[in-house]
Amino acid sequence: MSLKVMSRAPDGVDPFTCPLYAGDWRRGVDTAEERQRRMAPGNINDIVAFVAAAEAGSFVGAARARAMTRSGIAKSVARLEDRLGVRLFHRTTRSLGLTDDGRAFLDRCTQILADLEAAETSMSDGGGEPQGLFRMTAPMTFGRVVILPLLNDFLACWPRLKADVSFTDRVSDLIEDGIDLAIRIGEPRANSRLITRTLTQQHDLVVASPAYLATRPAPQHPDDLAGHDCLNYVSAGQRRPWRFTVEGRTVAVTPRARLSLDSGEALRDAAVSGAGLAFLPGYVVERDLAEGRLVALVTDHAAPPVPISLIYPSRRHLAPKVRRFIDLLVRAV
């Protein structure tokens, strides 16, 4: 496999100082020998090792991601630096950081590797048919209630596809863990290595069963929660606050909990049984509200909706398995 080397630097780039356009620029000649040396298969492997180290932030993490040894990654990076004549990383005993040259080179290499992957995919994806292993993660309740039924249909449509899916509230590192697609609830964090796309919005509601409300007055204001049995959601040892709009401001309340659970579906079941008030997403209780098993409360103080986002590694071309599942989610959710 060979790479096309640009014969000239783009406008605004100094070919005499920029490491991205190696070649005998000082003499104004990019020789055939120079091109052959740069395009040797081993050089591509060195670039892959460099990108892995930059993404992982360490040689150890890169070695784990690439199933190589730490010394193998380090030697590849050293060879690359020697060929380019620049230092790509600042190295200390505790950290590995990109130099300015390293950041510029990483941008170029990341795109080149993405283009190579896209070229290979275009030749082997069966005309855009999803296949291979699709790795995804989503929050537990949203995953079980919304994603799982769609995923079952998706797999039924594409028999050459397998899925490895984690429904968890733990936030994974998509790059290090090799995840194709993540779904996250809440304001996304900025990350230049990831693409974020808003899928929909989550509307949270205070709900209770008619049986429970027969014994207590229905709360009208967040301050009224103090006199009720409340059911709280707990994740990683932290209770999830209940959000409301009061006098134009968003306020977070963590009411006294009669019962705490780490499953949205379990909270829904407890609320239906009459155990108390629960604060749950609309997609969890939509059918119960429609069929009268639950009643929405404190509706005059509903909090602003929370974004639900699709997040995937920053690449120009998406594999068919990812692109088609995103298309399905956008249509269905």
Short descriptors:
333 residues; six-stranded mixed beta sheet; 38% helix; alpha/beta; elongated
Describe it for me?
It contains 11 helices and 15 strands. The chain has helices at 32-38, 41-56, 59-66, 70-84, 100-124, 140-157, 174-177, 210-213, 264-272, 282-290, 320-332, and strands at residues 89-91, 96-98, 132-138, 161-167, 181-185, 194-202, 204-208, 230-235, 238-239, 242-246, 249-253, 257-261, 277-281, 295-297, 306-313. Helix 2 (41-56) crosses helix 5 and helix 3 (59-66) packs across helix 4 (70-84). Mean pLDDT is 84; it is low at 1-10 and 12-30.
Write the layout of secondary structure elements.
Layout: H1 32-38, H2 41-56, H3 59-66, H4 70-84, E1 89-91, E2 96-98, H5 100-124, E3 132-138, H6 140-157, E4 161-167, H7 174-177, E5 181-185, E6 194-202, E7 204-208, H8 210-213, E8 230-235, E9 238-239, E10 242-246, E11 249-253, E12 257-261, H9 264-272, E13 277-281, H10 282-290, E14 295-297, E15 306-313, H11 320-332
Parallel strand pairs: 3-4, 3-5, 8-12, 8-13
Antiparallel strand pairs: 1-2, 5-15, 6-15, 7-13, 7-14, 8-9, 10-11
Helix pairs in contact: 2-3, 2-4, 2-5, 3-4, 6-11
